[in-house]
Each structure stands twice: as structure tokens, then as C-alpha cells.
From TrEMBL:
The chain crosses the membrane at residues 48-67, 87-108, 114-135, 142-162, 168-188, 209-235. The keyword Secreted does not apply. Keywords: Membrane, Transmembrane, Transmembrane helix. This is Drug/Metabolite Transporter (DMT) Superfamily. It comes from the Eukaryota. One of its GO terms (cellular component) is membrane.
Length: 259
């Protein structure tokens, strides 16, 4: 199978799995479980979902290291630790985008979320032109223009087709900000993965994709455990008096087989 066919298969799998992830995230919000208050309520825990995503991403690292050890010494892929440290940058962007997406899903439906993700194309193209000195062709500019029109239309239809306009506006705004953060993640990942000339903005040393994913998962998990979740617990809110109760989340997951 040629590299182009591999790319097409990978893109198709990403599309299917990405949609499945979104649907499962939305479904989790509707699952009822008993927490610390001993009363059943919906599992509306966007930060916990974000943390679990990073833990899952971190599992890619031991899988790659085990696979790499099984290869002959001449075929093993090198791991560059200095680049692994710098992967905290896309990890932070991923953390922000995932948290915003989880929050946005509480206010808008899945269909809008999937369509709104097209705005990532606009953001990525703009950021690549600014930071990676990417030169767009005429048809690329036309595609971006079409995407801009599409985003305006679906955002307007989402706001017009709801009874709670204020919540929908919040959801739409949060989703578009999440897409901007996702674009920052993609561009920074390309910077750390792609080999090329320094003039093009690419690094001379690259890491395998599984290392990039795994290190992002580790950095993201650490940021969630050390910064985000404690901060959310300290800030007053509607989740047992906290913005999000980390301990209540674990109790709810223990009491629900679906979760």
C-alpha cells in the first residue's frame, strides 16, 4: 500500500473515531449516577473527561517503546528527549481545546460541533502562514473563503433555531475558541514532528508520531493533576460547592457501569 493510500485510510479512521469520541462525550453528560451527595444526577464533568483523554493518550508511549524494543537495532526509531520536553506546548493547547469542547458540548448539539470543527482549517491555514511561512495557493484561499461562509451560516442557524439563545451563543463562542486552540496544537505538532529546513520553520530533529501523542498525554495529565483539577476544586461553583469536584467524579464513575 502506498503512502497516499495509508494517508487516506488514516484520515478515514480519524473521521470515524473522532465522531465516535464526540458522541460518547455527549452521551456521558446524560448518564445518571450517584456521587458524594448520594443523589442521582447527570455526569456533567468536562474537566474529568479531559483528564481521561490525556491518560488514554499517555498509553501510546509504553506501546511505542515496547514496539520499538521488538525491532532490530538498525530499525529502531530514536527518541529525542529535548523535543519531548518542548511537547508541553501542544499539550497545553490540546488541554485548552479539549476542555473548551467539553464545555461547549453542554450548550450545543453534536451536529453543530462536527460542522464547527471546519473552522480549524481557517485557523490552521492562518497560523501556518504566520509562523511556518506557508504559501497558500489560489484554490486553498477559495476553500478557506467557502469555510468562512459555512461557519457563519451554521452558527447563525444554531442560534436562530434554539429557544435558549444566550446558552447557544456561549456554546458557539466556546466551540470556535476551542477550534483556535486545536489549530495551535496542530501547527505546533507539525513544527515538532516535521523535518525540513530552518527557513521553513520546521525542526531538524523529529520524533515519531506515537512519541508526540504519548508525551502530550503525559504533559496533559500532569497539567490536569497539578494545576487544572486542583484549581477547579478551589474555585466556588455548582458542583458540590466547587467549579468541578474531582472526588465526586471518581465516586460517580465507581457507581456507574456505563461510565
Amino acid at each position: 500500500m502506498t503512502s497516499s493510500k495509508y494517508g487516506a485510510v488514516a484520515f478515514g479512521c480519524a473521521l470515524i473515531l473522532g465522531t465516535s469520541t464526540t458522541l460518547s462525550s455527549k452521551y456521558m453528560y446524560s448518564i445518571m449516577s450517584v456521587g458524594l451527595e448520594n443523589e442521582p444526577r447527570a455526569f456533567e464533568k468536562p474537566l474529568m473527561q479531559t483528564f481521561l483523554m490525556f491518560v488514554a493518550m499517555a498509553l501510546a508511549l509504553p506501546v511505542f517503546l515496547l514496539y520499538n524494543q521488538c525491532l532490530s537495532s538498525d530499525k529502531r526509531q530514536p527518541v529525542h528527549l529535548n523535543q519531548c520536553i518542548k511537547l508541553c506546548i501542544p499539550a497545553m493547547a490540546d488541554l485548552i481545546s479539549t476542555a473548551l469542547n467539553c464545555v461547549g458540548l453542554m450548550y450545543v448539539n453534536v451536529s453543530f460541533y462536527q460542522l464547527a470543527r471546519c473552522s480549524v482549517i481557517i485557523y490552521v491555514a492562518s497560523l501556518k502562514v504566520i509562523f511556518l511561512h506557508f504559501v497558500m495557493t489560489g484554490y486553498m484561499r477559495m476553500g478557506i473563503f467557502i469555510n468562512v461562509i459555512a461557519i457563519i451560516i451554521i452558527s447563525a442557524s444554531a442560534i436562530a433555531g434554539t429557544e435558549n439563545v444566550a446558552n447557544t451563543i456561549i456554546g458557539v463562542s466556546v466551540m470556535l475558541l476551542a477550534c483556535l486552540s486545536t489549530a495551535l496544537q496542530y501547527v505546533s505538532e507539525e513544527y515538532f514532528m516535521k523535518k525540513g529546513s530552518k527557513s521553513s520553520g520546521a525542526t531538524e530533529v523529529s520524533n515519531p508520531p506515537m512519541i508526540v501523542i504519548g508525551m502530550e498525554g503525559i504533559w496533559g495529565s500532569l497539567l490536569m493533576l497539578l494545576v487544572v483539577l486542583p484549581l477547579a476544586y478551589a474555585i466556588p461553583g455548582g458542583d458540590n460547592g466547587h467549579l468541578e469536584d474531582f472526588f465526586d467524579s471518581f465516586v460517580m464513575m465507581q457507581n456507574s457501569a456505563d461510565l
